[in-house]
Amino acid sequence: MRIIIGGGGRVGTGLARALRSEDKDVVLVDNNARAVKNSQGMDILVLHGDITHRQKFIEAGIETAQVYVAATNSDERNILSCALAKHVHSEQTNGKGELMTICRVRNPMFLEEHQSGKLSKWAGVDHVVHPVDGAIERLMSGLRSSSLTEVIPFEADAYIVELDVTADAGGVVHRTLRESGARVEGGMPLIVGLKRDGEPGRVPVADDQILPKDRVAIATAGEASFNRILRIFGHEHIDFPDRPKVAIFGAGLIGTRLAKAWLDANGTVTIVERDLEKANTLAGSDLGSRKGIEIIHGDHLDKDLLSEIEISSHDIAISALDNDHASIAAVLLASDMGVERTGLILYDADLVNVVRRMGITFSVDRKRVAIDTILAKIHSELPGPYAVLSSVPDVIGICLPINSNVKFAGKTIADAGLPEWCKVAFIQRKNIHEDWETMRPSSSKTLLEGDRLTIFLPPDRVTDLEKKFKV
Question: How many domains does the chain divide into?
Fold first, then answer.
C-alpha cells in the first residue's frame, strides 16, 4: 500500500513513522526545507514541494497510491490538496483507481460540513480528523487517577492503561507473569505491552519477569477497574467523586467541549474566561443555560477571584487556553490553591512528560490523538479502534472481525492457533440489543462468528495477522 502524506510536522512525521513500521510504502511531501531534512532518516520517500501543486502529486506517484493524508496546520491547504489529489489520481489512472483522502482540520465548521456529507461532494474529502473530542475522552478517563501515564479508550467500555511498576508491587515484582497470576487476588491484570529501560517494547509472554520501573500496558474493562490495577502495581489510589466539581479555564472550542462532556458525565462546571465577549457568548448559548454550569468573566490567574469561586472546593481544574505555557501556569496555580486533580490538553508533545514531573495529574497530546485517529481511518477495513501505545513503543493494537471466512470461528482461543507474538486483549460481542459488550479473553473462551478481537502485536506483523483473519 502506498500512502502519500502532505505535511512534515509532528503529525505527518509521526504518522509516517508508524506506517513505515508496518512496512507500508510512504511518501512525505512538505514545502519546508527543515521539515524535509528532519524526515530523511525514516526510509521513506521525502519530497520538497507544495501540496497544492499538481506536479508534486505526479512526482509522488499518485497513480499507485491508495491513500492521501493532508496533515498540515492549515485547514484550507489540507482541503484544497485533497481535492487536487483526487483529481490528479483520476487523471493518472484514467478514472479506474480509487484514492481515499483523509483531511486533518481544526475549525469545527469543516467538521460539520463533513458530517452533513457536503465536504466530500465539494472537496473530495472522504474522512475528516478533528481530534478534540478524542483528546477530551482520554483526559477525562486519565483524571480518574494520579498515577496512570496514558489511558486509551476503546469502544464498549474497554481501555488500555499504561503505568510504571513500583518497588511496592510486592505481588508481581521479580516474578514471572505466570507466578504472579497465582499470587494476585482475583487474577493478574492482562498485560499487553512491556517496556524496560534500554530494551524495546514487546508483547510479554507468561515467562517474562516484571521488575520495578518497568512500564506496562494493561487491557481492562470499565473505569472502575483502574484502582485495582493501581494497587497491584504499587500505586496509591484516590476515590473519584460520583459528581465531580470541575473548574475549566477558557471558553474557547476546547473549553466548551470539555464543559459539555463533564455535564453529560453528571459533573458540575465552573468556567473562567478573561474575554467578556466569549463569556457572554457562552452564557447565551444552549450549553450556558444548562443546569450545573456557572460562567465567570475574570482572570484565571487572579487569586482573589479564584478564592471567591472557592477553587479549593473543586475536584478538578483543567486549562483549555490556546497557549500551552499559559495553560500550565493556570493549573499549577489551581493546584497550589488546593485542587487535587489537574488536567491539560497540550499542543506541544514535548511538554506532556514535563508537566507530569511538575505534579500535574494528567495531560493529553492532541497531536498524538490525531495520529491515532488518522491511523484508524487508514485501517478503515478494520471494525474498531487502532492504537499505538505511547509509552510502550513497538507494540500496537488493532481490532479484527471473526467472519465466516475465518477458520477458527467456533473454536476456543487456545485452539485458534493465534501466533505467540500477539495477545488478545478484548473479545467484543453484540448483545440482544445490538450493542457491543466487552469480555476478558481466556484460553477456554469460544470465539463466535460476528465477534471482534482487539489484538496487540508488533507493527511489522499487522499484515500477517490480517491475512489470518482474511481481512
Answer: 4
